[in-house]
Amino acid sequence: ADFIRAYLARHTDLLEEDMCQSIVVLAGAGISVSSGIPDFRSANTGLYDTLRPELLTASELDQALIGDDPTLALDKGMFLENPLPCLELKRSFILGTQERRWRATLAHRFVEMLHTKLGKLTRWYTQNIDGLELQTSIPREKIVNVHGSMGAAACEVCGAEMDFGEFCSKIRTNIKDISGDDAEAPSQSTPIDCPRCNNPTMKPTIVLFRSSLPKEFHVRCQQDLPECDLLIIMGTSLTVAPANSLVYRVPMTSLRLVMNNEMVGRRLGIDYEDDSVRDVWASGYTDQSCLDLSERLGWLDDLATMADE
Ligand code: OAD
Q1: Is any ligand 1 atom within 6 A of the Cβ of residue 236?
Q2: 1-36+103-147+213-309: which CATH topology?
Q3: What secondary structure does DSSP assign to the chain, as a single string?
Q4: Is 147 a catalytic residue?
Q5: Which CATH architecture has domain 38-101+148-206?
Q6: pLDDT for position 1
Q7: pLDDT tens digit string along 36-58?
Q8: Which part of the chain is the Deacetylase sirtuin-type domain (predicted)?
Q9: Ligand 1 within 6 A of 71 CB?
Q10: Domain-by-domain residue ranges, the chain?
Q11: Quick check: ipTM above 0.95?
């Protein structure tokens, strides 16, 4: 317990320190897990471990490929060839987003307080597409959705936009029931045509593998990273580039706080030794670490009010 307290004291100091003026947050799926959304890579519970390719509408060959590499279900080449695996995989997520089925977690609220209480949040880079960060009061321009977001729909080929409500009602109704004997089998989506180019390539505005990141990511990185005093890495495995490049693009003088239930980013240079001069690991659940930090910073009442909203 003393060991943990010493670590927590060090975190609190980092945040309140005068020398720490600019905080950049890099978040991933782990911060939304407690709201009920699975992450991608956790063993047994992550999307890639629980994915059953045989239930996705794809050729047998594609199913076998997806079985070997589940990220292929979210690959641009695969989507252009056959949009259904991606749409099927994301259907409950798309509809859940429209229904606001999930709520911001304590970790989201903690980042909110870096802005409202400390005024030090320069930018929140999130790889998440769940939009939970938009439930906070953080100004939109402080958030970069590195992998796009679910709350809008556009054509992957020509970029034409479609009202998200209309897209969702098509997702809801463009379904053939193929459940048959297998109660777990999902019904089969049908593709959604683009109103402009007529390709069957309408999808939520999420970034697929092997497609470009929003320009905003690159522009903001150039602005933010040279000034960053503290990079907080929360709930991400740091496996996907270029989002993970923030880790080594911040100046050598900036500190890095990893809030994650496993050690991540060692190959990117994060140092988990006790005597590390720039890296600190808050191990365990992000919500718990955020709660502990909030307690030490005297923010618990604010956190409780926010969690009730
Ligand atoms: P991952 O699933 O790869 O990593 C989530 C990390 O959070 C893992 O290290 C988990 O151990 C950790 N974790 C899970 N729950 C946690 C909790 N409650 N508290 C603390 N840590 C927890 O998710 P991302 O790193 O976000 O991209 O994945 C990056 C990208 O890969 C995603 O944006 C997505 C995916 O393929 C695209 O789809 C383009």
Answers
A1: yes
A2: Rossmann fold (3.40.50)
A3: -HHHHHHHHHHHHHHH-TT---EEEEE-GGGGGGGT---SSSTTTSHHHH--GGGSSS-HHHHHHHHH-GGGGGBHHHHHH-SHHHHHHHHHHHHHHHTT-S---HHHHHHHHHHHTT--EEEEEE---S-GGGGSSS-GGGEEETTEEEEEEEETTT--EE-HHHHHHHHHHSEE---TT-TTPPPEE-----TTT--S-EEEEEPPBTSPPPHHHHHHHHHHGGG-SEEEEES----STTGGGHHHHS-TTSEEEEEESS---GGGT---STT-SSEEEEES-HHHHHHHHHHHHT-HHHHHHHHH-
A4: yes
A5: 2-Layer Sandwich (3.30)
A6: 39
A7: 999 999 999 999 999 888 888 88
A8: 1-309
A9: yes
A10: 1-36+103-147+213-309, 38-101+148-206
A11: yes
Binding residues: 155, 158, 194, 197
Annotated binding site for Zn(2+): 155, 158, 194, 197
